[in-house]
Amino acid sequence: MYKYIFGPVPSRRLGVSLGVDLVMSKTCNLNCIYCECGSTTKFYNMRDSYIDINKLVEELKDVLQNLTPDYITFSGSGEPTLNKDLGTIIKKVRKIYSGKIAVITNSSLLNDLDVRESLEEADLIIPSLDAVSEDIFKRMNRPIEGLSIKNILEGMTKFLSTTKKDVYLEIFIVEGINDSVEELENFVEYLKDKKITTIQLNTLARPGAIKEIKPASIKRLSEIREYFISSGLKSVEIIKKYTSREELPKYSDKLEELILNMLNKRKYSIDEMVELLQRNEIELFKYFNILQKEGKIKIVVENDQIYIKS
Ligand code: SF4
User: Fold this and answer.
1) Site to substitute for ligand 1 among 27, 29, 35, most atoms within 8 A of C-beta
2) 221/98 same-domain check
3) Does the CB atom of residue 79 touch ligand 1 within 6 A?
4) Last residue of a domain, one of 193, 215, 238
5) Residue 66: its pLDDT value, please?
6) 255: Cβ below 6 Å to ligand 1?
């Protein structure tokens, strides 16, 4: 049983991703209403050495003997940039691993130069931004005292104007809270001149810290995407998993039947499925997610590859 490593996790965005937790569960400076790790129990805003780096490196060496993930991803059950050794850790990981490194961050510490420099050691940064106005930030992210969206936006602006790395900016939508006309206009106003690889709209997949909140529908996410694109933002995608056939426009029963039929005989890798069914990975994953939710198929990692099996 590893202390700092979790996964590997099959993911459409990152392929085979091995997760690394850089803080103790659940250490964060936010307490987001949608957090799938539950409420924040260690509400800290101070950067510290939360883990034993040598032990982490040993654990990674051990896992990497049998696995070559597409990404090592620093995320987990807290905010990774709270670990003040982030840059050092990424450099150490590079010595034993030649694949890509991603960091998923809540963006709260981007105003800190050391955090920005540490992130520059990674290949891909996935920062989140769920609000642009202060009151909505407080409702969505319930920050630790003293943390303001003004400060986060300042940091985000510095980061986006200097980074040379890929940035997938994630906006988590909770209907009725951060999807008002005014707040969407605020997002456009802030993001319109920023250099971002892609903006990703996400919503709840599992119950959040506040049980009452509901995932945004695909219809609402599509409306927001269209509004962003028509307002001049480029590359906006929805990453919410499709969980029902009704949500998927032009759902093909025939394709579903073909997928199930193939998997009846044997398991297939994603690449094989793409080639045989002549559909792209994004489209196929929509079907896989629905069928997986219904318990008809499994998405697994075996021998460094993502396989689909019944
Ligand atoms: S920033 Fe991430 S870990 Fe922290 S409360 Fe929000 S969702 Fe959870």
Assistant:
1) 35
2) yes
3) yes
4) 238
5) 85
6) no
Distance between CA atoms of residues 31 and 124, nearest Å: 24
Give the separation between CA 61 and CA 93, rounded to whole angstroms: 9
Distance 104 CA to ligand 1 centre (A): 10
Cα 251 versus chain centre, distance: 26
CATH code of the domain covering residue 249:
1.10.10.10
Same domain, 217 and 250: no
Instruction: Determine what percent of the chain is predicted with pLDDT higher than 90.
Output: 70
Task: Give the Å distances, CA to CA, from 203 to 9, 75, 95, 285.
Answer: 19, 17, 36, 17
CA of 27 to the centre of ligand 1 (A): 9
> How many Å apart are CA 26 and CA 260, to the nearest integer?
39
96 — pLDDT class (breaks 50, 70, 90):
very high
Give the domain range for residue 299.
Answer: 245-309
Cβ of 37 below 6 Å from ligand 1: yes
pTM, to two decimals? 0.89
40 ligand 1 Cβ < 6 A: yes
Q: Domain total for the chain?
A: 2
Measured from the Cα of 106, ligand 1's closest atom is 1
What is the C-alpha separation between 183 and 149, in angstroms, rounded? 13
pLDDT at 207 over 90: no
Tell me what the mean pLDDT of segment 94-101 comes to: 96
Rounded distance, CA 264 to CA 115, Å? 49
Statement to judge: residues 203 and 269 lie in one domain: no
Residues 168 and 52 grouped into a single domain: yes
Q: 210 C-alpha to center of ligand 1: Å? A: 13
Question: What is the percent of the chain with per-residue pLDDT over 70, rounded to a whole number?
Answer: 100
Separation of 106 CA from ligand 1 center, angstroms?
7
296's CB contacts (< 8 A; 6+ apart) are 260, 310
**End of a domain among 222, 238, 254?**
238
